[in-house]
Amino acid sequence: MSRALIVIDAQESFRARAQWSAIANPDIAEPIGRLVGLARAHAVPVYWVLHTEPDSGGTFDPGQGHVRPLAELDGPRPGEPVLYKTSHNAFTTTNLQQRLTAAGVGELWVCGIRTEQCVETTTRVGSDLGYRMVFVTDATTTEPVGGLGAAEIVERTEAVLRDRFARIATVAELAAEREGAAA
Asked: Which domain holds residue 15?
């Protein structure tokens, strides 16, 4: 089955917000970078999705200069699409589904910022669209929300997605699978 990696909202807009200090993993670029490297090493196409709020004046307003991948990430490279969304999921306001269909993709690895928001929502919509979803949990991060700590949010997200909308995996598990498949 053909697969692709969707990197969701791993962007400087979050670092520019005051809430960045509360984010569970401020070094999120490291596991995302490992996952991107794994994908590239195994010819898994990488799609970059960035959240925008045009004309808002905030950190997600493209005019403010923060709507770009985290500086530590090696990407995007030539041929890797960069899509700009204005909704929580990566499908509704982009042509991601059309691109994936044209490429014959059936499985999506997802990672990024806001575990319970944009990454989870993309996972749910992707599942509804018929993709086999792999939620790469350690390549996501979030901040506390509504009295819940970040670790609780990640745990809840894994619980509601597992075996219903997605397979939950880590970067190391995917790497081991890829290495096993190559042997």
From this structure: 3-182
The CATH number given to whatever domain includes residue 7 is: 3.40.50.850
Burial of 93 (0-12, 13-18, 19+ CB in 10 A): middle
Q: Judge residue 9's burial from the number of C-beta atoms within 10 Å of its C-beta, 0-12 exposed, 13-18 middle, 19 or more buried.
A: buried
Domain count, the chain: 1
pTM equals 0.96
Q: Show the 3-state SS of 25-74.
A: CCCCHHHHHHHHHHHHHCCCCEEEEEECCCCCCCCCCHHHCCCCECCCCC
Q: For residue 109, with 0-12 CB atoms within 10 Å meaning exposed, 13-18 middle and 19 or more buried, which class applies?
A: buried
93-121: pLDDT as tens digits = 999 999 999 999 999 999 999 999 999 99
